[in-house]
């Protein structure tokens, strides 16, 4: 019987493993198919993690985290958890290989992945001029022109954020209306160095060995092609929450979620189902930052220790 089962091995899961084992829990297992570290290990440069003065890769930043957590007793199972159900006071976790585990509490820290837009060149230049995080990568384009693709709140908010760093921001959207809140739209329209490029489809992003050099958009009205010469393209067309483990066979969830499948939690990362917690990008209103995910994991672990008495 486990005290705590952690599903996911990113910053939230690892920090929860560290705090829970150091706080006295004996049987804590982190379920992660690959090497722990999370999505941040794919980032080439990290310069905004507190206390990390030198610019390092995401892989280097996360390198020592698993070792530190396992020093206090965290165990790592290289299994993918496909379902979680609660039977009385006990959670039953089933892995893809059919093996099952019982636990007194569960932390879901599976995260989310940016949704791809699907245009030509997106996969080729992802991470080499194409980004899904303005907070992470905006600084690299200081004083330069960039493009933002999307029409929701995130796209408009990030366009405004980038406008404070970059000389100009092209806001590229396939419609001529936005799905963002009226106040967000108003704020964007008042920002002088944002140019709206609407009612267009992105034909392709192109570049060379050094990365992105521009993108081409096609007008839906007359079919004309326009080229935007930018070294950076930021894509905000939504995220896919990795919530499969808590989904019932009928498509509902074992706890409350919002209409996008993000897990609803309180300030202690508790879900609507007693003993089930969620931390990091899988939860509502996540900031999508390593330091915030780590804070979530610590917050959840502290409360789990109290929950288990």
UniProtKB/TrEMBL annotation:
**PROSITE patterns, sorted:** PYRIDINE_REDOX_2
Which keywords has UniProt assigned to this entry? Disulfide bond, FAD, Flavoprotein, NADP, Oxidoreductase, Redox-active center
Decide whether keyword NADP is in the record. Answer: yes
Top class in the EC scheme: oxidoreductase
Record the organism: Malaciobacter molluscorum LMG 25693
Q: Which cofactor does it need?
A: FAD
The name this protein carries in UniProt is Thioredoxin reductase
Residues in domain FAD/NAD(P)-binding?
A: 3-297
What EC number(s) has UniProt assigned to this enzyme? Answer: 1.8.1.9
Family the entry assigns: Belongs to the class-II pyridine nucleotide-disulfide oxidoreductase family.
Gene Ontology molecular function terms on file = thioredoxin-disulfide reductase (NADPH) activity
